Amino acid sequence: QVQLEESGGGLVQAGGSLRLSCAASGGTFSSYAMGWFRQAPGKEREFVAAISRAGGAGGSTYIDSVKGRFTISRDNAENTVYLQMDSLKPEDTAIYYCAARFGSDWDLGRKSAYKSWGHGTQVTVSS
Q: 7-36 b/e with 16+ CB inside 10 Å = b?
């Protein structure tokens, strides 16, 4: 099973940008669709974005609240998935997790579809 490690979180002012990375090891990265989820204090973990195994703009999907602000991408040669976050808002504050789904590009918005998870990286957006 693939192991995942997120990085790139931090404290940023509203309107700023951050780029999260998730490095994968121990598996064939191109066999996994990848997702980003987030969990704010006192809330359920929610889907943010996902990208298919092959990647590309046509293979990505987003929650409505981040469309036009966040971009997911992947580098299969580097075994890494990214989440570029622009125009950040205080409501984006959360722990961000990356997740991997083996062998399928279906149902990528569903938490239970993913079997591998990272430990998360904190993103804090100040107003």
A: ebbeebeeeeebebbbbbeebebeebbbbb
Assign 1 to helix, strand or coil: coil
Q: Is 26 helix (H, G, I), strand (E, B) or coil?
A: coil
In this structure, are residues 71 and 4 in contact, taking their beta carbons and an 8 Å threshold?
no
DSSP letter, residue 124: E
pLDDT at 10: 97
Handedness of CA 92, 15, 36, 2 (dihedral sign): negative
As a whole number of angstroms, the distance between CA 23 and CA 8 comes to: 11
Written as six digits, the tokens of 31 are 């066999």
Q: What is the pLDDT of residue 93?
A: 98
Give 24-33 pLDDT, tens digit per residue: 999 899 999 9
- Residue 78 C-alpha from the chain's centroid: 16
95 forms beta bridges with 39, 122
